[in-house]
Amino acid sequence: MMKTAFILEDTPESQLWLSEVLQQSFPDIQIHAANHIAQALTALNHLSAIDIALIDLSLPDGSGVAVIEWLNRHSPQTICVVASIFDDDSHIFPALRAGAHGYLLKDQPQTAIVQALNGIVTGQPPLSPAIARKLLRHFHEPYVEATAQGALTEREKEVLSIIAKGMTMAETANILGLKRNTVAGYVKEIYRKLNVSSRAEAAITAQRMGLI
Question: DSSP label at 99?
């Protein structure tokens, strides 16, 4: 039974909206809130028995992942649910690895969020449909990645491993003793072979391929 909730959200309108969602889902729930990470950690240190936490990821003083990690260590009974506008791999997977039990997109109707939270009582993970589909695709990707890894040349793997660490094109060219335009050509070919369209996606794929 959900008795106590915590909301981490820096926008007053969204904080109110999430409070309404929680009250509709669990009518008698007591709600605490914070609008940045430092405030959240101070408050959580003085609270006990938080049953559910709705955590935004993009906050003025950092990522809400830090609070998810804190709750996972210090309050493992708390059900941590991300409430975010971001649906990309670079937000989803770090949050889930940190211990989030669910991931809801705030662009859904309020009724859909309420329904997802109600499902917690019967053991259903609170996931927006778009997030569930992305997770399913993720677990089918290793087969594609294995094929793609075999398709990459050794030089392309070298380039991928370097740009995945955050190096610029110029820095990568300097490290490998190549021209910047040559590196740009390799990157274009890597993106094509891996079927990705951003550096963040390439970095996640490189990690799963064991290149970093």
Answer: T
Token pair 């996606």 is found at: 201
pTM of the model: 0.67
Task: Kindly state the DSSP code that residue 123 receives in the 8-state scheme.
Answer: T
What is the distance, to the nearest Å, from the Cα of residue 3 to the centroid of all Cα atoms in its chain?
26
Backbone angles phi, psi at 146, to 5 degrees: -65, -40
The whole-angstrom distance between residue 110's C-alpha and the CA centroid of its chain comes to: 21
pLDDT in tens, 12-23: 999 999 999 999
The C-alpha torsion from 38 through 39 and 42 to 44, rounded to 10°, is: -110
Tokens (6 digits) for 118: 């109600």
DSSP classification of residue 54:
E
Across residues 178-182, what is the average pLDDT?
Answer: 90
